[in-house]
Design a protein that fits this description.
CATH class of the largest domain: Alpha Beta
Strand order of the largest sheet: 2-1-3-4-5-6
Largest sheet: 6 strands, mixed
Distance between the termini: 62 Å
Strand content: 5-15%
Helix content: 40-55%
Order of helices and strands: EHEEEHHEHEHHHHHH
Shape: elongated
CATH architecture of the largest domain: 3-Layer(aba) Sandwich
Mean pLDDT: 79
Structural class: alpha/beta
Number of strands: 6
Number of helices: 10
CATH topology of the largest domain: Rossmann fold
Low-confidence stretches: 1-5, 139-145, 207-215
């Protein structure tokens, strides 16, 4: 019997990753895998690493709809070693996005060609965690954000709004409610918003200029 370099500690894997074939490749290399419904991240590795895996197509979609920075924000808040793993042909993406992830967010971005390459990278991430204590990683350790961080997180849910623009909007209008209540003209006055973002924010607000519909 071939001995495994891993103890009884398991890598927690979001159940949606089962169909990617990557967890099975990890198991073949002796890595214990446990499937969970993970609110944040796709792979949780002993030692505090949390990996968000994205295919090239999903990366581009998440840039368009604003999910990428929300997911990275959650990874940073919940885990000590967040990683973004991009699978597929090296994607075109605005350089500012990749620079923001690496420098401002301090989240490493790894690239892999296919599922075998992805499994190999994850395998070595597990190895880099060092000797295991036999305990699996905690699936969701959330720090309570302060009011400003919470406001920025809410603004990141708006279409086309990234971290820099979220701060500008918060400085301009004081609160997420102030942003949603602002007119299209006022929104366009914030550097980086532009006409289409202003219109998109007004659509989210659900009312005419300067009016937020009650729910």
């Amino acid at each position: 019997m071939i001995s495994s370099p891993f103890s009884s500690s398991s890598v927690l894997v979001d159940y949606r990753e089962r169909f990617s074939g990557i967890p099975r490749l990890l198991e073949r290399r002796g890595v214990p895998v446990v499937y969970r419904s993970l609110p944040v991240g796709d792979y949780l590795i002993p030692g505090g690493a949390a990996v968000e895996r994205k295919t090239t197509r999903d990366l581009l979609r998440s840039l368009e709809d604003g999910r990428l920075f929300r997911q990275v924000s959650d990874l940073k808040r919940c885990y000590s070693r967040p990683v973004v793993l991009i699978q597929g042909p090296r994607p075109w993406a605005p350089r500012g996005v990749l620079i923001s992830l690496a420098v401002r967010w301090q989240v490493p971005v790894l690239y892999c060609k296919g599922r075998r390459d992805a499994a190999d990278l994850l395998y070595h991430l597990v190895l880099s965690a060092g000797p295991s204590s036999g305990e699996s990683p905690v699936p969701y350790v959330r720090k309570l954000p302060d009011s400003r961080e919470q406001a920025l997180h809410l603004l990141l849910r708006l279409p086309g709004v990234g971290p820099v623009l979220a701060r500008r909007l918060l400085e301009a209008f004081g609160s997420p409610l102030g942003v949603l209540g602002a007119s299209e003209e006022a929104l366009r006055g914030v550097p980086g918003v532009g006409p289409w973002r202003a219109q998109a924010i007004r659509r989210v607000a659900g009312g005419g200029d300067g009016e937020v519909k009650s729910v």
